[in-house]
Amino acid sequence: MKKRIFKILRIILLTLITLVAVLSIRHYFKSKSDRELFADAYGQYYTTPDGERINYTFYDSSSDKVAVILPGFGCSSAHYEFDSLAKDLGDLYKIVIVEPLGVGLSDETDRDRTSANYCEELHGLMQYLGYESYTIIGHSIAGIYALDYADRYPDEVEAFIGIDATVPKQWDICPKASLPENQYKSDKILKYLLVDTGIYRLLTELSFDKYLEQIPTISEEERPIVQAMYCTDQLRPTQLREMGALRENSENCSDKKFPESVPVLYLISKDNCNLIPGWDDIHKDVITDPDSRVVVLDGGHYLHLENRAAVVKEIKNWKY
């Protein structure tokens, strides 16, 4: 009986090893062809003083106001993720979707992922584009950078709109598993176990139709490009280093608040409010302008995908 059990276990183990090997090889070759498919698929480029390219997409509008959209951590393509939101806000702003270094079609970088460097790179882009005032719309981790950016360039930032945005003191009340240092470790493990083995690619391919339902503006011609990016560029080296630096970046901004000249609209997740007591209070803590608001919306962390209509409505109804 023991011999039979061990034999069955060996067969199962060998089957799993073979499957992972096949998926890994498939992922390797598919990634090479995918990168050829989405190379320079959209947008334009700004080259930093260090020679690294930052991709951005411009959505023109009859409005005189400008809004800059910044993605959260782990984004595969800010251009596609925020395409529907940008088009929905076209009557309010000219939109610039920015892919920071390590995101989407932008280059990797060896520069430290400090908030200071991020702000310097973004400010260089805005100077290149010639914009002297603009609203920043940021999801998740972009909240830390926006807070620091508004502190550094208060005369340029007209307002900040945070989509379930990160704030410096959230690590005092968040579950232990979500702490930056723990997430950094788990992301590195996931990179080796899921991404590099091709398992993540397979799971993404199987669930991609459901994901695309949240971005209705993506055309059938764009679909294979979007899928290629989401299957290929997950947890890139620059992004992993960004997560590794998040704790220090948050601590460096722990005493900062948005200047009184910068109104803030925080759109925060009801799911997170239920999971994390005080989620709304820590967002109220960093705003000073009387026109600022904190609004709880139904949905999870990706409100701009899960509940885009409510996000757009709140932004359009906000007077500042």
Topology (SSEs and partners):
Blueprint (H helix, E strand, L loop, with lengths): L1 H37 L5 E4 L5 E7 L6 E5 L7 H4 L1 H6 L5 E6 L15 H15 L4 E6 L2 H11 L4 E7 L16 H16 L3 H14 L10 H10 L4 H16 L11 E6 H6 L3 H6 L8 E5 L5 H4 L1 H10 L3
Parallel strand pairs: 3-4, 3-5, 5-6, 6-7, 7-8
Antiparallel strand pairs: 1-2, 2-4
Helix pairs in contact: 1-8, 4-5, 6-9, 7-8
Q: Helical percent range? A: 40-55%
- Counting helices, strands and paired strands, the structural category is alpha/beta
| Secondary-structure element pattern, one letter each | HEEEHHEHEHEHHHHEHHEHH
What is the distance, rounded to the nearest whole angstrom, between the alpha carbons of the first and last residues? 75 Å
Overall 3D geometry?
Answer: globular
Largest beta-sheet details: 8 strands, mixed
Question: In percent, how much strand structure appears in the residues?
Answer: 5-15%
Number of strands: 8
**Poorly predicted runs:** none
Strand order of the largest sheet: 1-2-4-3-5-6-7-8
Keywords:
320 residues, alpha/beta, eight-stranded mixed β-sheet, 8 strands, 48% helix, globular
